[in-house]
Write a structure and sequence with these properties.
It comes from Streptomyces radicis. This protein has five helices and seven strands, in the order αββααβββαββα. The chain is α+β, with helices and mostly antiparallel strands and 194 residues long. The protein has one domain. The protein is elongated.
Length: 194
């Protein structure tokens, strides 16, 4: 009789373990975020002669900086510096960056210009409204521009506007924060610096 009880106990435990993890199925869709990736987000820094700049790329579901050799024009030409950095964001990731899981969402058709007549001097204007860019692309641009010494960036804030001189396209301050890099959707909320 003891062997029979032991056998029943083993069967009962087996059935319980096969019954599931305790989470009940639901018909309500659950957004648990992006699927995990095997991306390491680590690249080996290359020894490069000359100037380098931090370019912010997408890795998995967050934005990380990658140091690249970039020939930037003189600091007096802010628009040319912004154009060079934008071109880096639009270029395909290097082999080691791609292997580490880096990509970019900055559209190849996007252009950058200097401020309009009524804009503050440090403003930069994009050929698309910032709100029309994907959140990831916008964070890539914000962080790359804000961390550029050549753009006079303070490592945090950049003034970006859309095309034209309409009030709705006026340059607004955007801040590159760690929260924004881990959750790019926050990019569509400009910073109030008043």
């Amino acid at each position: 009789m003891t062997a029979r009880r032991g056998w029943l106990a083993v069967c009962a435990l087996t059935l319980l373990s096969l019954a599931g993890c305790g989470i009940r199925p639901t018909e309500v869709p659950v957004d648990a975020g992006p699927a995990p990736t095997r991306a390491t987000c680590d690249t080996r820094p290359e020894l490069v002669d000359g100037a380098t700049s931090d370019v912010y790329l997408l890795c998995g579901s967050h934005i990380e900086s990658v140091r690249r050799p970039v020939e930037l024009p003189g600091q007096d030409d802010r628009v040319a510096v912004a154009e060079a950095l934008l071109a880096e964001l639009q270029s395909h990731p290097e082999d080691d960056e791609r292997e580490a899981g880096f990509t970019s969402e900055v559209p190849a058709s996007l252009r950058v210009t200097g401020p309009e007549a009524d804009d503050p001097a440090p403003a930069l204007r994009l050929s698309s409204k910032p709100s029309e860019l994907t959140a990831v692309a916008l964070v890539q641009i914000i962080c790359t521009f804000a961390h550029s010494d050549s753009l006079g960036g303070n490592g945090h804030t950049v003034l970006l506007g859309g095309p034209g001189s309409h009030t709705s396209e006026a340059p607004r301050p955007y801040t590159c924060t760690s929260a924004m890099r881990t959750s790019p959707e926050a990019a569509h909320s400009p910073v109030d610096v008043s």
